[in-house]
């Protein structure tokens, strides 16, 4: 992952947008790291992204424990909101992809209210009436500077990996469930829970059926993988000093 602060991440995003490299941004939390252990394709996609930020506080803590400290947490929704402000200031065009139609309409209204230009949108059910190729062609014709993709993982990562080079944009950003938050469908955890690394528990309470396996099972695996790596590092240090 990239050891970047939020400000540094935004500066790098602007550089990529200005050079129109069709770059991809991804945020990584504990659940996505666990998924990448078992999914070689997902791991390769993450490795190939131009900006890889730590979305989860647990990832930041683990980086420090393992001797490769990340400066801070850069959440997907905060990164998106910062980019919307940048788009409003610099006149960047935004394309919105994903979520339900009413959520998408609410997000567009909010972004436009904030001064950003939304050049196009397609809800998360486009495959009912469009092929992926037709959607990509539609996005390409509009030539947005930023593409926000509000699809679940690994769907959004796979979609961008397959189609990124056919989309002439500056930066593609996977934002997961962020559109639902902007539209008021779901709430973010209080700031103190975010800082304490227990935002996952807030989401688990909100959506217990959907989030149970992801958080309780996934977080346990994450702790196991981190401790396994830490133990391996300690063994190497003891061997080197013997």
Give a summary of the structure in a few sentences.
It is built from twelve helices and six strands. The protein is of the alpha/beta class and 242 residues long. It folds into two domains: 6-190, Rossmann fold; 199-240.
Q: How much of the polypeptide forms β-strand, as a percent range?
A: 5-15%
Write down the CATH topology of the largest domain. Answer: Rossmann fold
**Integer tally of domains:** 2
**Form type:** globular
Spatial arrangement of strands, main beta sheet: 2-1-6-5-3-4
Helix content: 55-70%
List the helices and strands and how they pair.
Layout: H1 6-19, E1 23-28, H2 30-38, H3 40-48, E2 51-54, H4 57-65, H5 76-90, E3 93-98, H6 101-113, E4 117-122, H7 132-142, E5 146-150, H8 155-163, E6 171-174, H9 178-182, H10 191-196, H11 199-206, H12 208-240
Helix pairs in contact: 1-5, 2-3, 2-12, 11-12
């Amino acid at each position: 992952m990239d050891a970047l602060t939020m400000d540094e991440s935004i500066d790098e995003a602007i550089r990529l947008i200005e050079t129109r490299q069709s770059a991809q941004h991804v945020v990584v939390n504990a659940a996505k790291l666990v998924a990448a252990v078992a999914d070689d394709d997902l791991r390769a996609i993450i490795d190939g992204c131009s900006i890889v930020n730590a979305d989860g506080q647990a990832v930041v803590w683990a980086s420090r424990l393992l001797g490769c400290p990340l400066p801070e947490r850069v959440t997907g929704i905060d990164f998106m909101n910062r980019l919307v402000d940048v788009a409003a200031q610099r006149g960047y065009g935004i394309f919105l992809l994903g979520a339900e139609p009413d959520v998408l309409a609410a997000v567009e209204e909010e972004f436009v209210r904030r001064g950003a230009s939304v050049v196009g949108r397609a809800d998360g059910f486009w495959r009912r009436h469009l092929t992926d190729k037709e959607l990509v062609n539609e996005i390409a014709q509009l030539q947005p500077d930023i593409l926000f993709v509000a699809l679940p993982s690994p769907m959004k990562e796979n979609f961008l990996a397959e189609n990124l080079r056919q989309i002439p944009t500056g930066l593609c950003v996977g934002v997961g469930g962020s559109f639902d938050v902007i539209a008021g469908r779901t709430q973010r955890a209080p700031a103190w829970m975010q800082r304490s690394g227990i935002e996952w528990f807030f989401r688990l309470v909100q959506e217990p059926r959907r989030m149970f396996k992801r958080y309780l099972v996934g977080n346990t695996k994450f702790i196991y993988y981190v401790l396994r790596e830490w133990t391996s590092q300690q063994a190497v240090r003891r061997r080197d000093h013997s």
